[in-house]
From TrEMBL:
SUPFAM superfamilies: Galactose oxidase, central domain, S-adenosyl-L-methionine-dependent methyltransferases. InterPro entries: Gal_Oxase/kelch_b-propeller, Kelch-typ_b-propeller, Ppm1/Ppm2/Tcmp, SAM-dependent_MTases_sf. This is tRNA wybutosine-synthesizing protein 4. Pathway: tRNA modification; wybutosine-tRNA(Phe) biosynthesis. Belongs to the methyltransferase superfamily. LCMT family. GO terms for biological process: tRNA methylation; wybutosine biosynthetic process. It catalyses: 7-[(3S)-(3-amino-3-methoxycarbonyl)propyl]wyosine(37) in tRNA(Phe) + S-adenosyl-L-methionine + CO2 = wybutosine(37) in tRNA(Phe) + S-adenosyl-L-homocysteine + 2 H(+); 7-[(3S)-3-amino-3-carboxypropyl]wyosine(37) in tRNA(Phe) + S-adenosyl-L-methionine = 7-[(3S)-(3-amino-3-methoxycarbonyl)propyl]wyosine(37) in tRNA(Phe) + S-adenosyl-L-homocysteine. Its EC number is 2.1.1.290, 2.3.1.231.
Length: 670
């Protein structure tokens, strides 16, 4: 548990070095320096932002009072006191910090050694006595085990904590490491002994969904299990916990809601442009698995730091589920590491033959960008997989992620776009050519050839997280390239009509309301046109709109398909059309109470039904984002290949095996 504090300080320090948070004291307290990934920076930014937002609100609301105090529980190597003092916000406030005795001693030694720190505490800062490891005029550092409540109470009294003045308690990823009986006792003790008090909590939530299971496993491996999650698994349970332990007001938000509603738009934009970033799914999943809670009692005026400052529409979450879809491991495909990947693309190149390309995954026991292709072929009712080599020795493939692959014939497919890193330019287009006898027993080589593009079509290929869809116009075949993002534009809303097979860029008139820009959406061919659903829009907000691009006499027309109930906004899903029904598979949404399963939209009536995926027969968490899926209409089955991603600092999860979803019951009943 003590180790998590040091690791947290290093991550905050790295975020500060990249400009996410303004804090010149972290580098003095963190000890070692290490640069973290952009996803980690964002995660620690939102943590620091939430805590600072609530602390400064407390100081603002109580600035007219003669005295207040802050008690930081499990403070570790946090720099809160030094930041507040440096900002001139502690004129009448004393800060008390509590942590394990050896942590408090280490921090006290650091403060005494660093002139920049000791100067802020003032000359009265000196040697502490007993459990008081450092004592300044407005700063007290105490070495006490928080689970020993009587010892904590005695030491706080000795250090001068005053029960009669407004007090802010802070527990930043602390209570969850304690036995529930002890953390509950601490929460109740604070309410009973302090007539005017506020309590700020930041910690984990939602332990049982796929991301939550990976998160729990990580902390268990560190020998610091998250003990509160079983009893208090969601925000509502945490709110009931505080209201039942003597606190009269309590507001809770997960971090997606906090970032959207309590962070000014200009600040959101600043953070989103600090460094190249392309891990939206993991960022939003991390934010849905952490909450900030503000509880209070006896405060006048009341303490309500979590009131939205940004007017964001309250989105309805999924209603009741219409049923469930069984998931089963795909027989005989276990143990094939090349199918463990995300950000890849799978395409049915002929009946019973599926090609999977690109992405990031596992090869030879290593995590890497995937160069090899994999071919699945159905033989005698079972899928068989084989790795396929490219017969081009150069770097044409480019180890790309988030590209599209469109089948043009049994022997030809087109790769459009993709990226290597989020700062890379687009990777252009490639032909994939298969031998006529291509099958899993003797797949032969796949030749990769660069497409020589007209200048007008180059922009169509310089993107990723886009869609490429087959369509027809006046009986001619086209590919419709839409949306996505590029190294320069975080979200695109343009489109291109590429006439096949020569890929000439054709101008065709389009009428109707233009969909808002998006990436990570889904696109399907339907009745000669294209269905676009969901996606991540500007400001990194999921979208719930469905559009149909349909053919007119002289061009095309955008039409909105109204769904009822409204489609829950989502992105990073896959989609298929079957007999007038649009099937949306998985994805990421902002509603942490459940994860997206299968949504079926009747394209004639707009009826929208959600189905949960029954994973009881899977022995591992099924992450349905950054996956690929192939619909098999004869069997009424969906084959899910790959999926997963970097689960914040908890490790990378790759779905280990392909999964079959049986849709026969929902397609018949619907």
């Amino acid at each position: 548990v003590q180790g998590t504090g040091g690791s947290s300080a290093v991550s905050k320090c790295s975020a500060a070095a990249r400009g996410y948070i303004q804090d010149r004291f972290l580098r003095l307290l963190a000890g070692r320096r290490r640069r973290r990934a952009p996803l980690i920076h964002r995660g620690y930014y939102i943590r620091a932002r939430a805590v600072d937002h609530c602390v400064q609100d407390f100081l603002l609301k109580t600035r007219s009072l003669p005295r207040t105090q802050i008690l930081s529980l499990g403070a570790g190597f946090d720099s809160l006191y030094f930041r507040l003092k440096d900002m001139g916000l502690l004129h009448h406030t004393v800060v008390y910090e509590v942590d394990f005795p050896n942590v408090a001693c280490q921090k006290a030694t650091l403060i005494k050694r660093m002139k920049e720190l000791s100067a802020l505490v003032g000359n009265t800062g000196g040697e502490g006595l007993g459990s008081i490891t450092f004592s300044g005029e407005d700063y007290k550092l105490l070495g006490v085990d928080l689970s020993e409540l009587s010892e904590l109470e005695r030491t706080l009294e000795e250090a001068g904590l005053n029960n009669e003045i407004p007090t802010l308690f802070i527990a930043e990823v602390v209570l969850t490491y304690m036995e529930n009986t002890r953390s509950d006792a601490l929460i109740q003790w604070a309410a009973e002994h302090f007539p005017q008090a506020c309590f700020l909590v930041y910690e984990q939530v939602h332990p049982e969904d796929p991301f939550g299971r990976v998160m729990q496993q990580h902390f268990s491996q560190l020998s610091c299990a998250l003990r509160s999650l079983a009893r208090y698994p969601d925000c509502e349970a945490q709110q009931r916990r505080f209201l039942g332990k003597g606190w009269t007001e309590c507001t809770v938000m997960d971090m997606n809601e906090f970032f959207t509603c309590c962070t000014p738009e200009d600040e959101q934009q600043r953070v989103q442009t600090l460094e190249p970033f392309d891990e939206y799914e993991e960022w939003h999943l991390k934010c849905s698995h952490y909450f900030v809670l503000a509880a209070s009692k006896g405060m006048d005026p009341s303490w309500t730091p979590l009131l939205p400052s940004v007017t964001a529409p309250r989105r309805a979450g999924p209603g009741g589920m219409a049923g469930s879809v069984p998931a089963a491991v795909c027989a005989r495909l276990s143990g094939i590491p090349g199918l463990r990947r995300y950000g890849h693309h799978s395409v049915l190149i002929k009946p019973g033959v599926i090609l999977t390309t690109g992405g990031f995954g596992e090869e030879n026991g290593q995590h890497c960008r995937m160069r090899n292709f994999h071919l699945l072929r159905k033989c005698a009712g079972y899928w068989k997989a084989v790795c396929v080599t490219q017969n081009t020795p150069d770097k044409r493939w480019g180890e790309r992620l988030y590209h599209t692959v469109s089948r043009l014939s049994d022997t030809l497919a087109l790769v459009v776009g993709g990226r290597t890193s989020p700062s890379s330019a687009g990777l252009g287009m490639l032909w994939l050519k298969f031998p006529k006898t291509c099958h899993a027993s003797e797949p032969g080589d796949v030749s990769v050839e660069l497409v020589s593009l007209q200048p007008a079509a180059e922009a169509a290929a310089s993107r990723w997280r886009h869609s490429t869809t087959e369509m027809t116009f006046k009986g001619e075949q086209y590919l419709f390239v839409y949306g996505g993002r590029s190294a320069l534009e975080p979200v695109l809303g343009d489109w291109y009509f590429l006439h096949t097979p020569e890929l000439s860029c054709t101008t065709i008139a389009v009428e109707g309301p233009v969909p808002e820009s998006r990436h990570s959406h889904s696109a399907c061919s339907w009745e000669g046109g294209v269905l676009i659903a969901g996606g991540l829009g500007a400001a990194e907000q999921p979208l719930g709109s469905v559009f149909l691009l349909s053919e007119l006499e002289h061009g095309f027309q955008w039409q909105t398909i109204e769904t009822h109930p409204p489609l829950v906004p989502r992105y990073s899903h896959t989609a298929h059309v079957h007999e007038g029904k649009l099937l949306l598979v998985g994805g990421v949404w902002f509603h942490a109470s459940s994860v997206p399963g299968i949504t079926v939209i009747d394209l004639k009536t707009g009826l929208c039904l959600d189905y949960v995926i029954n994973v009881e027969h899977l022995e591992w968490p099924l992450m349905l984002h950054n996956h690929s899926s192939v619909f098999l209409p004869n069997e009424k089955e969906l084959l899910i290949i790959g999926g997963g991603g970097n689960c914040f600092s908890f490790g990378t999860h790759l779905n280990p095996e392909p999964v079959v979803l049986s849709l026969s019951s929902i397609l018949i009943s619907h």
